[in-house]
Amino acid sequence: MAQLALFFLGAPRVEHNGQDTELDRHKSLALLAYLALTGQPHRRDTLAALLWPDLDQRRARAGLRRVLFSLQDALPGKWWEVERETVSVQPSPELWVDVAQFSRLLAGCREHHHPADAVCPDCLVPLTEAVETYRGDLLAGFTLRNCPSFDDWQFALSENLRNALARALELLVLLHSGQRRFEPAIAYARRWLALDALYEPAHQHLMRLYAWSEQRSAALRQYADCERLLEAELGVAPQAATRDLYHAIKDNRLPGPETVLRARQSSSLDIEIKPVPAAVNAPAAEAAPAPRISWPSLSRGTLVGRENEWPQATRLWTEARAGEGRVLLVSGEPGIGKSRLVHELADLAQRAGGRALTGECYTEGGAPYSPLAQIIRQGLDDSQLSPGLPAYLLADLLLLAPHLRPRFAHIPSNPKLDADFERQRLVESFVTWCLALAQTQPVLMVVEDVHWADSGTLALLHNLARRVRQAPLLLVLTFRDTEIDQVQARGLDRILLDLERERQAVSLQLTRLGRDDTGTLLAALLATGTVSAEFIDSVFRETEGNPFFVEETCRALIDQGRLYHVGGMWRRQDLAQVVLPRSVRAAILARVQRLPALLQETLRLAAVVGRRFEFDVLRAASPHPEEALITALEVVERLQLVSSEPQAGSVTFTFAHALIPFALRESLSHPRLRQLHAQVAAAIEAIHPGNLDELAYHYAAGGQRTKAIDYLRRAGDRAAAVYAYDSALQYFRQLLGLLEAEPADAARLEVMEQMADLEQWRGERTEAIRLYQATLDLRQQSGGWDKWAVVRLNRKIGETLLRMQKVEMQPFQMAAQAGLARALQMAESEPPHLETVRLLTTLAKEVYWETVLGTSLATRTGTERSEAADKAYWQAVVQGLHTKRLPRAGAEQFALAAIAMAEQLDAPVELSAALDALATDYASRQRHLACVELALRRLALSRDPRFGDYRERIDVLCGAGSRLAGVGQYARALPYVLEAESMASQIGDISLIIPALVTQAVCFFGLDRWDEMLQIEEKRRALEASHGSLVSRMCFFCGLSANVLALRGEAELSRDRREEAHNNMVTRLGPVETWPAVGHY
Amino acid sequence: MGEGEFALVREHLEIALSQTASWMGEYDIYATLVDAAAQQRDEAAIRQYAPRAEALANELGHQLYQGVVHRAWGVAHCLAGEYAESEVRLSQALEIFGKLGTRWQVGRTFFELGELAAARQQPGEARDYFSRAMADFDRMRAAPDSARTRTALEALS
């Protein structure tokens, strides 16, 4: 009978009928391993995407077919279940897989009637066999190139198996130790330690084993090894337990193995049983009145019950620190302990020589990018400005963190360029700075409560998350998964889906504590050795293990005098007399309501300011004298409701948890809330008149319409100026809501057009067109007939249409064309005007693209009345144009008319755009020499001092180089594109560096300067490594370098590059049969 | 380039040529086709593409492609036994490539001159041209061309 044995632990090996079988393809082995180890059917599409992620579906499925065929050929038999849509490996008694055997043996131990992580003598045989089966790590030495999903699967499974091995080895150590068989115990302990040399419990076991086997000096050496390794790798000292053990061994105080191991063999292996002091939390002999003690404090912020999550988090930090950057997502309901976990991690990171940077998002919002501004401030505070970083990058950081501008007045602002580009560069600058910072010192970057983050912050974090892999940086984002469906958090939801799909992040979802962990937390909070079971049960029943709720419940009980500290011991009233709060909100309010009126009032006012509030603002907003406020804040700080932090020139307070101000605001009536917002707004306006975002928020919430309109407009403009388009839109939507109460006026129309511009910039072109159209309609309804506004809006609709995909544009095309024609009719009777030049340029491009895309009006078969009417109208207009002063409607004619008018108006920028439109048309008609002339003319124009657009100048240089190279004038083209590259590098514009490099590559290739051509390719690859998706699809480079490599006889490398070029083309343009001419060329 | 590969090149480039409103230069496509045909020593294909390639290169003043077309004609004439015409064309190509300083193209043209001399039964001249081609190829580290030229030299001795 045929037999198949698959060895995946260690170097992979396949044994078919007792013979080693070689598989001819790397991917065959990967597929076999994946199918055999997952043990379930998989869809062909899933497998194809797993193993050929770079190919389109059709080619990937073809690859899968070939590999399946090859596998079935190499391993014939009943192993395969190959269906039309799914593929699996059939389970069979003749199929043996070492990983399954390893897991089976370990699972067998769990049937021995003891807890899963305990051990008994019957475990000895299966555990020994299991660790012998484990020859090495999963698929040791085997990797699949360019298959990140497969890598992730392999890595995760390999880690699980290693962890299982570690547990098995630990159990074997315990078993042998318990039976005083120290030699095998030491051997297993050494193997266990080899899995993770920094794991202190393994060091401790080995120390004990040496000591028990009378090798005291070896035990002390083991401690010295442990100390040295921890210092060298993490920069930390051994834990107290390890140090205590060392001293116990040194002083000959180590108990025998039976004493130490008894508890562990009878109970959980993961929890040390410590001596327990006498119970002190019994009910007080006298129920009431309880003695009140001044300001008893809770030991807040203890990390409890995260035995699974904490090791994962620290592992990610260790990996990140070693240069394999990671992203960690920590989620859970409010109060679950997300902040506590990341604070502990930050402490660990700092102790290990890393730099921890933290930004927080607040429900009350704030300026765009404010969490990143906090991070930038910390980063710039404790590091020198890196001299290696370009000035434009630092200027961008100051744009994100404008409050730092006065400190860095010597850094000039960047020149104003086009919005799309600047937004992209802002992202690049932030990411580059983070990565550069991490190169000087490993960085743990935490952004808390990202469900409240603005879209600009999310966009930057998303980009950073995609780029951290090669840097010593761990990015940690915390969020409430309970709020992910809220409108505010939708941007985050999209990013989380992306990160999950791209397998960029590890998620830790924190759950509530169990009953025992609640007890541990209570013991930690009360700083006592033990807590009575009855008290734990009561608290657990009410709080259901939410750590913050547990803390607040304790606090409420203390404040009510139900729980008190006397004579060094905690006492409580009889539980029958204690009423525990029913919700966390109730717990918070119960505490606040017991305070004097002034304190309550102060806290509520502070809550309206926000989670963080400045004393000066509070003082200005409050009707109470300063002295009274200071006293009130001292009291609430001692009550651990807020904490203070002195900052330059002021003191800032932060509520201990985001839920506290939330609960306080919720407790206010609407009129009171409105009144307090108005008070706060007036205070901020007096102290920080530049805090536009806060002023807009508080004036709007305070119902101060006029002020709200003013600040919403200004905050929106400022958000737009720093490319936080979503934030700007939010302000403008709110503003529009206030303006809609009145008849349409110029202000309302202006806001609508601004919103349309913003939608256009953020790529929401359908929405942009809808808004432009609505603005046009409203203008006409309101009777305010500004001719140039109508021309401009129609032109913008046309330009937006040109940026749309073919399918996307179809519903709007007819109306947009009609609008352009109408605008043209309006403009033609006017004297020359810049808006007419822009309109004609847009028309030239529109007609050109219509020709290229083959969607001319004549081919349309619209049947709806409105479309038919538009069509007739458009045709009539086109007919009419033939007989009027403007030239007939062809791309060339429109462009020529635009050029003539721009010349007449002496407008170099508009003239350059019109010349470019003409060149585009000429190139498609093979009029290449004419294109060269136009490019050189644009070049001359760009030297005009009035030609202020720096980026346009680079584009012109690239264009001149490209056109000259196109007609074989390589030597003449080169200086232009070298200059373009240099200028683009100064502003960090990858989108212009790349075309400059493309033309350089063409020139060097045409001039037989192969070495320089290959250097360009290296440069391109370096950019790809640092800028990822922006340059990764440059098939043209791959193709050229493939040619040079082939001419150099480097066939294999050339073939790889050619395949890369081909795959890039397929990814970019789809299947070969749909490629345009350039693809075939 | 193998025969099958040349067929594939032709197939793709013919598709590219057939597309309207292309961003591609027609002259690029013809120059590529004619050069590939010359490398393949396919006289019929050279004669099919060279006239259009030449007209387009001349129209644009595209010197590199003018040189490429001259050399392709040189190969076609040589294959047809029209040695004098071949020599004229190859000399014109050599002159253009020399001015441009494109060393690999110069080497390839020397190689074709060597082939022409060999066809004319002039082994001394052939050896001289092949040696010059070899020097250029070596300097460019164009290993396959060096090997091909070495074989041609060995065949002469």
Please summarize what this structure is.
Chain A has 1081 residues and is an alpha/beta fold. Helices cover 62% and strands 7% of the residues of chain A. Chain B has 157 residues and is an all-alpha fold.
Fold and architecture overview:
The complex is a heterodimer of chains A (1081) and B (157). Chain A is α/β, with parallel strands linked by helices and 1081 residues long. Helices cover 62% and strands 7% of the residues of chain A. In chain A, the strands form five sheets. Chain A has a five-stranded parallel beta sheet with strand order 9-10-11-8-12, sandwiched between helices. A four-stranded mixed beta sheet of chain A has the order 3-2-1-7. In chain A, helix 35 (834-853) packs parallel to helix 38 (908-924). Chain A is globular, with a radius of gyration of 35 Å. The longest helix of chain B is centred in the first third of the chain and has 18 residues, at 43-60. Chain B contains eight helices and no strands. Chain B has helices at 3-18, 26-40, 43-60, 63-79, 83-100, 103-119, 123-140, 143-156. In chain B, helix 3 (43-60) runs antiparallel to helix 4, helix 6 runs parallel beside helix 8 (143-156) and helix 7 runs antiparallel to helix 8 (143-156). Chain B has two domains: 1-82, no CATH class; 102-157, no CATH class. With 157 residues, chain B is mostly helical. Chains A and B meet through helix 46 of A and helix 1, helix 2, helix 3, helix 4 and helix 6 of B.
List the helices and strands and how they pair.
The complex is a heterodimer of chains A (1081) and B (157).
Chain A: E1 4-7, E2 13-16, E3 19-20, H1 26-38, E4 42-43, H2 44-51, H3 57-74, E5 80-82, E6 86-89, E7 95-97, H4 98-109, H5 124-133, H6 148-178, H7 182-195, H8 200-212, H9 216-234, H10 240-250, H11 257-266, H12 309-321, E8 326-331, H13 338-351, E9 355-360, H14 370-381, H15 391-400, H16 419-440, E10 443-448, H17 455-467, E11 473-479, H18 490-501, E12 506-509, H19 515-525, H20 533-543, H21 547-559, E13 563-566, E14 569-572, H22 584-593, H23 597-609, E15 612-614, H24 615-621, H25 626-638, E16 642-647, E17 650-655, H26 659-666, H27 670-687, H28 692-701, H29 705-721, H30 725-739, H31 746-761, H32 765-782, H33 787-802, H34 806-828, H35 834-853, H36 865-883, H37 891-905, H38 908-924, H39 928-942, H40 950-966, H41 970-986, H42 990-1006, H43 1010-1027, H44 1035-1047, H45 1051-1069, H46 1077-1080
Chain B: H1 3-18, H2 26-40, H3 43-60, H4 63-79, H5 83-100, H6 103-119, H7 123-140, H8 143-156
